[in-house]
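FAQ: What does the model actually see?

It sees only this:
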Amino acid sequence: MDRAASAPRGARLCLRPLAERPRCSIIVPCYNEERYVESTLRCALGQRYPEDLLEILVVDGGSTDRTREIVARVAAEHPRVTLLHNPARIQAAAMNLGIRRSRGEVIVRMDAHADYAPDYVAASVAVLRRTSALNAGGAARPRHRGGFQRALCAALSSPLGVGGSAYRDPSREGFVESVWGGAFRREAFEIAGLYDPAAITNEDAELNQRIIEAGGAVYLSRDIVAHYYPRSSLGALARQYFAYGAGRARTLLRRRKLLSLRPIVPFCMVTAFALLALAAALLPAARPLLAAASLAYAALVIAESLRLARRASSRDFPLLCAILPAMHAAHGLGFWAGLLRGARGRVGRRDAERLPAR
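And it is asked to produce this:
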């Protein structure tokens, strides 16, 4: 794509020019991240960006491990680091607390279980200036520290695993529906509102959808580089994807639409198999159809697992055969759970709270 990116069709905001070196606020939401938080803070402190234009706000949800102790020690060494308490615990509320306390014209989200390139902030600012986007980010590049994470990284590179999500592709460049993390112009929260404070997951995609609906743009750039560490067990992965599915359903109920049909594919698959199983239990004639669908799905998973294992490690094949169905089933069931919560009146559309304009 041409480096001088043009605004996407439908973008209609007129923004003031962003300074070449605006003040930036890095916000790190965290909870029980003692294994990763110091590394993330070292990445933030090591950014190639003027120190007097960079503040770092760590918003902790009452960690019960050594996270707060580690952050306090780093903050004692580096006055740019401030530790804040998030009584609501969840990440969306942490981000809102940090945004309200921030002084930056650009607000950069850094999750605690990730590593960031030394030019992460500078590259984000450059992309915001070049594209006039309200949010700019890079691809979600997974990195592993063990065997399960290695297999999961392979699954996350597969269209069967993530459904062709643009923000999973490190080679992509252009305007997209959502990015991982992100660097926001402050106006994004004045125009589209803050994060949904009750959203446990999918808060980033929901916010990006509101940015686009308000006439802004979200941009994915190869120049913005970071790596994150995915879940380290099958159970933790299933719980995460169940929550992702529920979060997608919450977004659908709040916004009354999704920007693409991709997030509901696992939901449709789970629903189809459930209906086939019910039909097979009631009608013997439906049993061959259920068997054929099951065999076709198993063949697809096995074939993709073999392809991924050849690229990564043959030892990953059994794990991949378990990881891919776990991701699909958990996301689909979570979507159902989110819809049912909405049907009971727990979720409804309401306007997001906006950050007061300066």
